Amino acid sequence: MFLSASPDSQTGVRHSTFESLRLGRSSQSIASGFLRFWDSLNFKKDREFVEITVLLLDEKLNSVIHGFTPVGHANHYKPSFKADSIVKVDRFEVSSH
User: Superkingdom of this entry's organism (predicted)?
Assistant: First the structure.
């Protein structure tokens, strides 16, 4: 999942909604409320950092999506993460757990 701060009104690009997401890799972009993020650690491996976990909000559907940014991309994206902002999400994969 790749996030950037890009409100709908500034991008001019039509974004998909949470409701339209399907399982698998997606070429769609979604605009979402960025609620919260935190570091996820592997406690079995001496608290090794494994990813940044994020919560995204779709206010129209009143639903939340749980996502993550892998460790390889974390340092690039973490400085731009701001809770309670609007973000554009693209290049992501949808799975059910």
Answer: Eukaryota
Mind listing the pLDDT tens digit for each residue in 78-87? 887 888 888 8
Q: What does pTM read for this prediction?
A: 0.65
| CA–CA distance, 27 with 29 (Å, rounded to integer) | 7
Selection from 9, 62, 54 nearest residue 34 by Cα:
54
Structure confidence by residue, pLDDT tens digits, 26-55: 777 888 888 888 888 889 999 888 888 888
Cα Rg, the chain, nearest whole Å: 14
Identify the structural domains of the chain with CATH numbers, from first to last: 2-94 (2.40.50)
